[in-house]
Amino acid sequence: MSSEMTPTQQTDNALVFEELHYRVEGATLLSEASGRFEAGRIHAILGQNGAGKSTLLRCLTKERPASSGRVVLAGHDLQSLSYRELALRRAVLPQNPSLVFAFQVEQLVGLGFDVQHWSSDSRAIAMQAILQACDLVHLAKRDYLSLSGGEQQRAHLARVLAQIWPKNPDTSQAFAGKWLFLDEWSDGLDLKHQVRLSALLRQWVKQGLSVVMILHDLNQIMQWADDCMMLKQGRVFTYGSVPEVMTPENIESVLGVSVRVLQSEDSVSTMIFPQLS
Amino acid sequence: MTAALRMSLLSIILVSVMVLSLQSGSVNLSLIDFWTGLSEQQSLVFWEIRMPRIVMAALVGAGLAVSGVALQALFRNPLAEPGLIGVSSGAALGAVMVIVLGGALWGEVLSWQMSLSAFALAAGVTLLIYLIATSKGHTDVALMLLAGVAINAVAGALTGLLISVSSDVQLRSVIFWMMGSLSGVSWDGIALLGSVTLLALAVLYRLRHPLNALLLGEQSCLHMGYAVQSLKWQVMTASAVLVGVSVALVGIIGFVGLMVPHMVRLWVGPDHRQLIPLSALGGALLLVSADWLARSVVQPAELPIGLLMALLGGPFFLLMLLKRREVGV
Fold first, then answer.
1. Are strands A42-46 and A210-214 parallel, antiparallel or unpaired?
2. What is the ipTM of this complex?
3. CATH class belonging to A7-274
4. Which of A90, A219, B71, B180 could form a disulfide with B251 if both were Cys (CB 3.0 to 4.6 A apart)?
5. How far is A86 from chain B (nearest CA, A)?
6. Looking at beta carbons, which residues of chain A come within 8 Å of B213?
7. Could you say which of 3.40.190.170, 1.10.3470.10, 3.30.420.40, 1.10.10.10 is the CATH number of the domain covering B27-327?
């Protein structure tokens, strides 16, 4: 799965973080977190509740400045990038996005295009493509508050996509330089939409998109991610490609649950089960 | 219907109601008189009583409705309203402080002094409620409304205290004004309110995109590239200016900021590109109509407009609460 890149390309495109510390009110939520997320891949972050996953995501998206350490996105120190510049490079889907105002789905997605200052002409085609991707075409005129939880989640995902949607999405590197940060995006989505959207994410990643997602489901990580970073008590426990790091030993150390790994007969897919003892 | 069409429609209705309201009152004054030339008395009534009053009603209505829009975006909740969360009574306390204390200290009190003091306290209350009810970018609605109850009580008590130590002359002006009244409006007051209302409206309209993003939460607003901190300061200041100056000039008129944005949202949705201008027009229309009603129902006397709006707005608020219980948001 790992794609070969020249060293210069790596320095240019990757998201690099060094020695991140995050302290708040005496508690250390993140310490000595370093890593390097290569562009054009899907990175999963795994860990127990309170292991620092969301905190790391906040530091990487400049939502909260780390107490110390630095983050470099595609060669730019995060501190030197304005929020406006950042918004054009990356979009963030937080956990449990809340909204109590009755936007139509189409209007909500439009807020993403507003960030890019797109004229209404250039929107129409992209809007259709995004609504189609998130299976929202039939809900386009519906009021957000009348949607089910999963539909609302898809509407937010569509809005986030609109924020970084390229002008020519059909070219081979259309999504190069764009990053997507997703905090438990698949929660509340039914299986059909999980499969559909993860396949589309993979397609956009092939076109250069970089994705960082927090996931709890081990099998989702196996199926969707290229690399996985495991966090334990605010520290990076291990990081590497999914087949390398998703071992029963690592998982047990990080999650405190012993697991069994089963290969399917054709050894195409791997299933991880918690061992009930 | 396009945005421009909606705005034109509301503008036409507003102007028509203003024209109708101008003709109504104890002194006869019709469009025909206007055509054939006004008598001296009619001219005086027209230029010094009715016209300023109706223009003031429009300005106050527009300002209060838009301040509601601003506060609702700030608190991300459609129930945030300057009267309910104590901003108006804070402003009233500021104004009474100047009437009573200023009256004792330096004699004649000017409307800009009352406005400034009312603005300062309105801004203080907004900030206080925000600090109490909002943490980590999320507003606790119950806390916001309860804090509003507490601030209304304290500001009301302090205002009462000031009234009890005031002289008879001051007392009359305080009470008259506390019920919310559009009589005795001056062109100076209109110039003051007109300029700050236009300014605040322009500031808020310029912020229409970030305000839309703010409805998604501070987190998402930041991720969408908008400067959340400065946005919040501008929204708080603009809404406090609107409430402070209008309370200083005409007293507390409640529920405009609750009803108008709510109805406009039902009509066009929550997008601030349309919500701000349409709420301004809708607020003007509501208060001009309410003022007309207040002057017509008990002729030759008149209902204080603040009382009338409370009579209309209270049940409306209850309905919104019930609706909220149904959908659970």
1. parallel
2. 0.89
3. alpha beta
4. B180
5. 7
6. 111, 114-115
7. 1.10.3470.10
